Amino acid sequence: MSNSFSIISALVATLIWGTAFIAQDTGMDNIGPLTFNASRFFLGFIAVLPFALFFEGKKIIKEIKLNKKNFIRLLTVMSASIFLGTSLQQVALQYTNVANAAFFTGFYVLFVPILLYFIYSKKVHWSIWPSIAIYFVGAYLLSNIFNTKIMLGDGLIILCSFFWAVHIIFVGKFMEIFDIPIFFSAVQAFIVGILSILFAYLFEEINFSKIFLERSSIIYAGVLSGGIAFTLQMFAQRNIEEAPAAIIYSLEAVFAALAAWIILNQILQIHDIIGCILIFMAILFSQLVPIIKKS
Question: Quick one: pLDDT at residue 148?
Fold first, then answer.
């Protein structure tokens, strides 16, 4: 699989995640965050499983048997990190706005290289650090955070971004060992759905008629974000290292702003446009500098 396909997969996944912020926010008008999460991930599982069985059915058992302990370990860590990341993000959206959520979620671009060093003693290419700095300036301008107060939701989003960073790192490790990305994505979605529904029963009132009222948001956030985007992430990180991948994923802040502009009629100001350009520059810098140096 080519590096170009991996970059395209990362960009498409990022586009879906960025635009899904709108669905995640509007999808809680009638139901709680955990109920929303359970619905979207069960739908994501249903959407992805047929493709997993069709394309990977013959090698699923063989791949798992080759390294069963590692499969279970990675599945546990990655499912838990997605559950915690998405749950915190959904709860946070009740206390903060979409712009702030997109900005603070992007903190994983900082957490990923730090965690890589502490977990695997792995140093990242020097271009990652200026890329992170450029990203934060761009995201700061894009988020309009200088016009809002730091809210409870923002703290939850920062914590959520830590779990996203953990997930990004272990996706890279999974793809180094196994070759069943679609099946893994489906099972991962199922486990997150199970965890979400268990906690929803404890802390929320589950009403199926109210869930049906949010069907549009659940379908978008479920099939596209919870299913297809997380599958594309697996393919993306087959050829892209964790830290550069995190920089690409940070483009979701731009896509979230564009979605808010198109869907919610939130006009982009000049500082928003400059922020978008800076984030795009950060991505180009992180991807092109290592290639130019090799050449």
Answer: 56
